């Protein structure tokens, strides 16, 4: 979350009050690295 909030583009999406729906996904690759994604919608 810290990385997203420190990114101007991601921060703008997260704080967008017009977004009323969110989808969040997480996956782990074979090396154990975790990847997160968010999708915002109105």
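Q: What amino acid sequence fits the structure above?
A:
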């Amino acid at each position: 979350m810290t990385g997203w909030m420190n990114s101007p583009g991601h921060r703008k999406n997260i704080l967008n009050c017009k977004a009323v729906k969110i989808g969040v996904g997480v996956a782990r690759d074979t090396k154990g690295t975790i990847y997160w994604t968010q999708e915002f919608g109105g």
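Q: And what stands out in the fold?
A: The helical segments are 2-5, 8-14.
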